[in-house]
């Protein structure tokens, strides 16, 4: 009996030591790398695509990459990244050839934005956005803008500060966070005369669902509608002081969602952060001033068609 216990004890000890060694190995190694598929892609640049790309990049990239001092996309320390992810800096994505993305090919940019795999093969953890379901035309527009002569992306030789991802991030990048597949068929823009289809496209691809569903961990980025608590709110993004900002329920539930809102209430809230008789909406719900009233109204129309979820979320208000 004693001998058996001893054997079990040694066995357990061996397991603990192996786990410890595994963590030590992961901690000392980098975020995992993957094979980079060569994408033969040449951006198509027109004044219209650059303008559309600027609008999209302002809503989808600037919140993380805009540096207030350089007034361009040279990268910043991300104060709202959860501290357990480590010390995270976004990159300089202006056109400088040494420090930025001047040397990247259009194909490498598409591949990163679709899958999350950088040109050197390293996976970019969830604190860098990915666009697995956006239309080909919109990806093209974003790249056309990144290559344009707009001051936001003009070459600025500001070196990147490398992020210092935590052990947790490294472990998660081995077990949970994986690159998205490169789409095999063309992804079309929705028919813009179908308001509900347009609203759905925007609600998914401007990332509204990712903050406004139950939790980042249970979001389904390839099939947003399958995310847990789809648009029912209660997710916990952080503000710039690292405080939790609970997200609102945007389902048509009349009591706890926006079932009693008018289209106009919604447009004012989304584009200008305004709510009658209440504090203005705060970070990370930044005003989407680039949206046209029609686009904001389309998101509202779509949200009124999804299943209501009864989930009361109190606003996080800090003085
Ligand atoms: C939620 C914050 C966030 C958003 C939104 C975001 N990024 Fe990033 N991005 C990052 C971070 C952080 C890194 C650095 C990643 C790393 O350390 O692996 C990064 C890295 C990159 C890189 C790699 C640069 C290099 O030199 O390695 C490119 C290119 C890039 N982002 C482009 C974009 C574009 C284009 C958009 C908009 C469509 C965007 N990002 C949106 C946070 C973000
Ligand atoms: C980065 C996370 C994030 C993203 C992305 C985001 N939101 Fe929000 N949103 C929030 C938070 C947090 C609040 C609550 C802010 C507050 O209480 O001041 C909020 C509040 C709102 C409200 C007010 C609802 C109410 O009941 O007061 C509306 C409407 C809204 N968001 C719509 C949208 C739409 C539409 C999009 C996409 C275009 C979007 N949000 C993208 C985080 C986000």
UniProtKB/TrEMBL annotation:
Residues annotated as transmembrane: 7-28
Presence of the UniProt keyword Transmembrane helix in the record: yes
Pfam families (UniProt xref): Cytochrom_C (PF00034)
Molecular function per GO: electron transfer activity; heme binding; metal ion binding
All residue ranges annotated as the Cytochrome c domain in the record: 48-150, 194-307
Keyword Transcription in record: no
Record's keyword terms, sorted: Heme, Iron, Membrane, Metal-binding, Transmembrane, Transmembrane helix
SUPFAM superfamilies the record matches: Cytochrome c
Name of the protein in question: Cytochrome c
Annotated organism of origin: Hanstruepera neustonica
